[in-house]
Design goal:
single chain, alpha/beta, TIM Barrel, five-stranded parallel beta sheet, four-stranded mixed beta sheet, 20 strands, 45% helix, 13% strand, globular
């Protein structure tokens, strides 16, 4: 039996959804995109173009929900299925768009470079329990106008897994779309086997920028999946109560669903977010707070009630180092998210309020993910009844280490983490160097990088990706891309 966790009753979910629909039909949303406003007007919404405002109607919202796909899948660069976002299936992906990286060698937070991104892409390619890449860190050695497309470029050049990505500009979408078509071959094949998910972030409270709303439209037109990332902050730019925050999150996410589905009915999407409480003592937005995790798990229940696949930024930490707090917050988040059945769990590798990434933490978090995935398999009898023969053998032999039953089910029943998780007795731990967690994590990163082999893209496809990226860079005065030998 798969274990599950719920925070909301169905009656409360219905009440939250009804309230959020009422808000969209009475207060509406600010929408700074004339094209999208015109489209919504054509469908009967009340639009005030001079004031960039739209008030929706219940039938428009229901129409969008009726055409929303209940699931979709992602595929790697070779076209092999990796992620099935349906039901309670769970997949982990690293956190995204960190401005900083924690450098293991001097324990210093600094700006990441191309070389850091390549190491990241190579590392994540070999992590068993991380099913997709994300554009996790923002290299500081390229023009900021190409930072979005450049991250996708490096991910496709060095990784096999699909990519959770996005863009902070309208202009970057075209080249990012063309990179995906280069990998797939045609627009039709890209639609058939999606390679990426684009994050689309409304601004709380109840606002869509020109850029983000256009990204939703562009992705919908090409059937590129989007994840809606509403970010209300409880007690600051959202009601202080968790229920009130859920109402606002639901309204903001529903407005995004309307934009997507009216553009292209059936366009794939994830009902996601990155909300948080606001800690008034420090004026911070703790992603590792238990209340933040509760909001994430609860809006996942609302998404499932609406019949949609879900996403959340969870299984990450606000710690500044790879320490006990990092493990505590990440472990609790990963466990709650998995038990709640969040389909795409974004967060492994992240520190410092989603602003910093650590390769060593990502290696550790891969093991946390492995443990939670084992937990989801639950407890199932495997030739355990009758148990009498096992105990008779135990009494006769004194152990069951090499019994047929043990040999058959050992690897199926027990998850064996890599040596980054210390399970040795103290004498053996001392003999092997008395390594700290950080040292073991760094050793695991190094071993993974040493084992990396080139991804499965053909040389011709890689050359075309380089050509597209170089052409884009030249638009912004970069005559050459940073060196890529690591």
């Amino acid at each position: 039996m798969r274990p599950k966790l719920k925070f909301l009753s169905e009656d409360l979910i219905r009440q939250i959804v009804d309230e959020s629909v009422g808000i969209l039909c009475k207060l509406g949303v600010e929408l700074n995109n004339v094209e999208v406003l015109s489209m919504l007007s054509d469908y009967g919404a009340e639009v005030d173009i001079p004031n960039n405002h739209v008030t929706l109607k219940e039938d428009i919202i229901q129409k969008a929900l009726d055409t929303s796909p209940k699931s979709f899948k992602l595929y790697d660069v070779s076209g092999v299925e990796t992620n099935d976002f349906s039901g309670y299936k769970v997949h982990f992906t690293p956190g995204s768009a960190a401005l900083n990286i924690l450098d293991y060698h001097d324990n210093r937070i600094r700006k990441p470079l191309t070389s850091d991104y390549i190491k990241y892409a190579k590392l994540v390619n070999g992590l068993d329990h991380i099913k997709s890449q994300s554009t996790a860190i923002i290299p500081a050695d390229v023009h900021d106008k190409i930072s979005d497309s450049y991250r996708l470029f490096l991910s496709l050049l060095y990784g096999d897994k699909p990519v959770i990505t996005g863009t902070f500009t309208i202009e970057a979408f075209e080249v990012m779309k063309n990179m995906q078509i280069t990998v797939r071959g045609t627009e039709a094949e890209l639609k058939e086997k999606p390679l990426t998910v684009f994050s689309a972030c409304p601004t709380s409270p109840l606002k869509w920028s020109d850029v983000t709303s256009q990204n939703v439209v562009d992705c919908a037109r090409y059937s590129i999946p989007v994840e809606f990332i509403s970010m209300p902050l409880s007690g600051f730019i959202a009601p202080v109560t968790l229920t009130g925050t859920l109402v606002q999150h639901t309204a903001e996410t529903l407005s995004g669903i309307v934009i997507s589905q009216l553009t292209n009915p059936g366009a794939p999407m994830l009902y996601g977010g990155s909300p948080a409480i606001f800690d008034v003592r420090y004026e911070t937005t703790p992603m590792g707070a238990i209340e933040t995790m509760m909001i994430d798990c609860a809006y996942n229940e609302i998404g499932k009630y609406l019949g949609l696949p879900t996403q959340a930024y969870i299984a990450l930490s606000d710690a500044k180092q790879l320490d006990a707090q990092a493990g505590l917050e990440t472990g609790i988040g990963a466990t709650l998210a998995a038990l709640s059945g969040i389909n795409s769990i974004s967060g492994p590798g992240m520190l410092d309020f989603e602003s910093c990434f650590s390769l060593e933490k990502l290696a550790l978090d891969n093991e946390i993910c492995g443990m939670t995935l084992r937990m989801l398999e639950g407890i199932t009898p495997k030739e355990d009844f009758p148990t009498l023969p096992r105990l008779e053998e135990l009494l006769q032999e004194g152990h069951l280490l090499i019994s047929d039953h043990s040999m058959k089910y050992l690897n199926e029943e027990q998850y064996f983490p890599k040596p980054i998780i210390d399970r040795a007795n103290r004498p053996r731990w001392i003999d092997e160097g008395s390594l700290t967690l950080g040292e073991r994590a760094h050793r695991q990163v190094k071993e993974s990088l040493d084992q990396y082999s080139s991804n499965s893209l053909s040389d011709d496809v890689k050359k075309e990706l380089v050509r597209l990226m170089e052409k884009e860079a030249k638009k912004y005065g970069m005559d050459a891309l940073p060196a890529r030998d690591v």
